[in-house]
Amino acid sequence: MITVIVQFQLPEPLTLEQARQVFLSTAPKYQGLPGLVRKYYVLSEDGTTAGGIYLWRSKQEAQAFYTPDWKAFVRGKYGSEPNLTYLHSPVIVDNLSHEVVADA
Fold it and tell me: How far apart are alpha carbons 96 and 51 in whole angstroms?
């Protein structure tokens, strides 16, 4: 599995409540997305940086999602270029399901 950390600068700081509303407006587009296991929306404590932490089944599925159109969507919605960091996720501890999941 692959974790991708996406970060981008905001044109103006957001409060946690403002971020929640913005993030809720985009959340439906990620439901049922092929290869996406989980997405966490994130906001820095000072409200100037936002993004997401995505868990994907494979790097290929992740890369298929982060297209030029997706980057243009982020630029248009948030006003800055997203920075992506890819990380291997060979083992995941899930305390909600009480599972330890190992990458195949």
Answer: 23
